[in-house]
Amino acid sequence: MKNVILTAALCCCVSILCAQMKIGVKSNYRTESSYEAYREYFNPANGNYYGLNYLNTSGGFSYGLSMYKDVGYLWFMPEVYFRKSEATYSVKMFHDFERSEERVRDSHSEISIPVSAGYRHKNIKFGVGPIFNYKLESAYGLGEHSEFLVDERKWSTGFQFLVGFIIKDHIHIDLKRELSFSGTTDNYTFMSMPMRMKTRPHTFSLSIGFYF
Fold this sequence. Notes:
three-stranded antiparallel sheet, 13 strands
């Protein structure tokens, strides 16, 4: 009985909070900041030798919805974006006396769910919070080589730091620094072993939202 009462009270509080929230539409432009990473892989069964160089991850525009709530000097803001990204690699292949080099790309369409909260001073807000990303559709270029096996992880996470400016309580301009907890090669294994490349791109983004 206590659990039922607690659940009902929690649902009631969430409903009241959501009812008082402003709903807005947002557009976001992001740029990725990352360092190149290089690692070599060898298959003793057939003598194939690979030199894999991670080059970059593309940014771009994303669009979505947002909810915003002021609670005194504090605020709370969950968001949902649809976005696309593309990671580029350079692959050097050596076999016997033959060698070749090519560029391959991984592309993803995903839903990004940033949840932030923080402190508001007049028209300026400061905040932090987690980010949850879910892959909707992906194409893996490295998967064309038999030794690189796709081990897709649908969910990935990160953390964000935010500084924003509010205009007349209806327009929000937010600058974010997003840190990814997942590496770009986490969706692969080499001969069923983790690839262990230090490839965690971080993001700067600028978003504009209009709230009703």
